[in-house]
Design a protein that fits this description.
Blueprint: E1 10-14, H1 18-27, E2 33-37, H2 40-50, E3 54-58, H3 66-74, E4 82-87, H4 92-100, E5 105-108, H5 114-144, H6 155-166, E6 174-177, H7 184-193, E7 202-206, H8 212-220, E8 221-222, E9 234-235, H9 237-240, E10 245-249, H10 256-268, E11 270-271, E12 280-281, E13 285-290, H11 294-299, H12 305-311, E14 314-317, H13 328-339, E15 349-350, H14 352-359, H15 366-380, E16 385-386, H16 395-405, H17 416-431, H18 436-443, H19 447-457
Parallel strand pairs: 1-2, 1-3, 3-4, 4-5, 6-13, 6-14, 7-10, 10-13, 15-16
Antiparallel strand pairs: 8-9, 11-12
Length: 472
C-alpha cells in the first residue's frame, strides 16, 4: 500500500453501485485518499487494511447489510472511523438503526449538492480527528496520574501506594486523610485513572470552598424555575460524574443537614435536583478527603455517624512531609525538572547546602509548599545550581515547626531561646555553604564557639564549603 501524504485523510466507500464509488473518488480527488469496495465483505477487508478515517457505507449491499458491516467495524479496536450511511428513502429505518449503533450521519439518495456532501464528509473527518486527540490526551492523563507516578520511596509512601493498589479493581468508597498540601487530590486521581472508570469523568467539589447555601445546588443541580434566576435546568456534580468518579474534598466542612441528603444519594444511588420531583439514577464512585478530625466532629455532633461509616469503607492516610523527609530530595528534583524549563531557567541541580536547607525545614504546608518554594528558587537562580540563598522559607512556620519537634543533641527539650539560636546557626551555615569561618563572622562569634553550639544542637557540618578555612 503506497504511503499517503502526511495530514491527508482517507475515505473508504462501500457501495455495490460502481458509479457511486467513481463519483466520490472524482469529487474528493486531491483532497482525500479514496478507496472503493463493492460488497460488504470486501469493504470490511479494505477497512482492516487501510484504516480509513471516514467510511461511506451503503445500507443495502449484495452479500451482507451495511448495518452488519457497521456492527463489525464497531467491534474492532478504537479509534473507529466516522461512518456515514448511504440510504434510499425506503431504507431510512435502517439508517436510523445505524445511527443508534454509532454511525456519524447518513446521506439520502439521490444526493444533494456537491458542496453539501463535502461539508458532511469534512465534519466526519473532524469528528474522527477530535476523537483521536481526546483518546491520546486521556491516555496521557492516565499515565500522568498513574499510581506508579506518585513520588516517594519512604516506607510511609510505600504503604500509601499499597493501599491504592487494593482499591483499583473495585468501586469501594475511599476516604483520604491528610494535612493540607499533602496531595489528597493527587491520590484520588491516581485511584480514578488506575481503575476501570479511567476513561469516564473525574469530577471534583471542594466542600469548604462553596458557600453553604449553594452546596446543595452544586451537588444535585436544579430544575428550571426552582428559584429566582433558575432560567434553565442545571446538572449537579453527581450527574456530571455519572459512570465516573466524584471527589468530595474537605467533606468534613459539609453542612449537617446536607449530610443527610448526601447519605441518601450514596445509599440509593439516585439524586433529586433542587425543585425537582423525580429521582435520577446515577452510577458514581465516591472518593472523599479531609484534613479535619472527623472522629472529633462525630463526638461534637457536627458530622453524622451513618455518613462517616458510609464514606470510610477504606481509609488512605497521607503522611505529612516532615514524617517522610527521605522523599524530599526526590520531590525537590522532580519539581526542579518540571518547572525550570517552563520558567526559562537553566537550573537542574541543588547544591548540597541547598538540599540540607530543604531537609532541615518542617514543611507545614507539605508538598504544595515545597513545590512553590522550588518555583521561587528557580526564579532566583542564574545558573545550573540552586543555592541555599535562593530558597526562601517562611520564618514563622520554620520557627513553629522547629519548636514543635526541637531537642538538643542529647534529646532533651529545647527552650524557645535555644530554638531561635539553633535556627540562626543553621541559617548561617546554609548561607555560607557550611564554611565555619564565614558563618561565625555572620553570627559575630568565634569559630570555637560556633563549633560548641553545633555540638550542642547536633548540627553536622556538611562536606561542601565555600572556601578553604584555616584550621582551628
Amino acid at each position: 500500500m503506497t504511503a499517503k501524504p502526511a495530514g491527508r485523510a482517507s475515505i473508504l466507500v462501500i457501495d455495490d453501485d460502481i458509479s457511486i464509488g467513481v463519483f466520490f473518488a472524482e469529487l474528493f480527488a486531491g483532497q482525500y485518499d479514496v478507496t472503493v469496495a463493492n460488497s460488504g465483505e470486501e469493504g470490511f477487508r479494505r477497512f482492516q487494511e487501510a484504516e480509513p478515517q471516514v467510511v461511506l457505507l451503503d445500507v443495502r449491499l449484495p452479500d451482507i447489510s451495511g448495518v452488519d458491516v457497521l456492527e463489525r467495524i464497531k467491534k474492532t479496536s478504537p479509534p473507529h472511523p466516522s461512518v456515514i450511511m448511504i440510504t434510499a428513502n425506503r431504507d431510512v429505518e435502517s439508517a436510523v438503526r445505524a445511527m443508534k449503533l454509532g454511525a456519524f450521519d447518513y446521506l439520502l439518495k439521490p444526493f444533494g449538492s456537491n458542496e453539501e456532501l463535502a461539508v458532511v464528509v469534512e465534519k466526519a473527518v473532524d469528528d474522527r480527528r477530535l476523537r483521536v486527540e481526546v483518546r491520546t490526551l486521556r491516555h496521557e492523563v492516565q499515565q500522568f496520574y498513574s499510581p506508579d507516578n506518585l513520588i516517594g520511596k519512604s516506607p510511609l509512601m510505600k504503604s500509601v501506594q499499597d493501599r491504592i493498589e487494593k482499591v483499583l479493581d473495585n468501586d469501594i468508597t475511599v476516604l483520604i486523610r491528610g494535612d493540607s498540601g499533602t496531595g489528597k487530590e493527587m491520590v484520588a486521581r491516581a485511584i480514578h485513572y488506575g481503575s476501570r472508570r479511567a476513561d469516564r469523568p473525574f469530577v471534583t467539589l471542594n466542600c469548604a470552598a462553596i458557600p453553604e447555601n449553594l452546596l446543595e445546588n452544586e451537588l444535585f443541580g436544579h430544575e428550571k424555575g426552582a428559584f429566582t434566576g433558575a432560567i434553565q435546568f442545571r446538572k449537579g456534580k453527581f450527574e456530571t460524574a455519572d459512570t465516573g468518579t466524584l471527589f468530595l474534598d474537605e467533606i468534613g466542612a459539609l453542612d449537617y443537614n446536607l449530610q443527610a441528603k448526601l447519605l441518601r444519594a450514596l445509599q440509593e444511588r439516585e439524586v433529586e435536583r433542587v425543585g425537582g420531583t423525580r429521582p435520577i439514577t446515577v452510577d458514581v464512585r465516591i472518593i472523599s478527603a479531609t484534613s479535619r478530625n472527623l472522629e472529633e466532629a462525630l463526638r461534637q455532633g457536627k458530622f453524622r455517624d451513618d455518613l462517616f461509616y458510609r464514606i470510610n469503607v477504606m481509609t488512605i492516610t497521607i503522611p505529612p512531609l516532615r514524617d517522610r523527609r527521605e522523599d524530599i530530595p526526590l520531590l525537590a528534583n522532580h519539581f526542579l525538572k518540571k518547572h525550570a524549563p517552563r520558567l526559562g531557567r537553566e537550573a537542574h541541580e541543588f547544591s548540597q547546602a541547598a538540599m540540607q536547607k530543604l531537609l532541615g525545614y518542617s514543611w507545614p504546608g507539605n508538598v504544595r509548599e515545597l513545590e512553590h518554594t522550588i518555583e521561587r528558587a528557580i526564579i532566583y537562580s542564574e545558573g545550573a545550581l540552586v543555592l541555599p540563598d535562593f530558597i526562601e522559607l517562611t520564618e514563622i512556620a520554620a520557627a513553629s515547626g522547629a519548636a514543635a519537634a526541637a531537642s538538643d543533641a542529647c534529646g532533651a527539650p529545647m527552650s524557645s531561646l535555644d530554638v531561635a539560636e539553633k535556627t540562626a546557626v543553621q541559617d548561617a551555615l546554609n548561607r555560607t555553604a557550611c564554611n565555619i569561618s564565614r558563618a561565625a563572622e555572620i553570627l559575630g562569634i568565634t569559630r570555637k564557639t560556633l563549633r560548641a553550639k553545633m555540638v550542642k544542637y547536633g548540627i553536622q557540618k556538611g562536606t561542601e564549603t565555600g572556601s578553604a578555612e584555616p584550621s582551628a
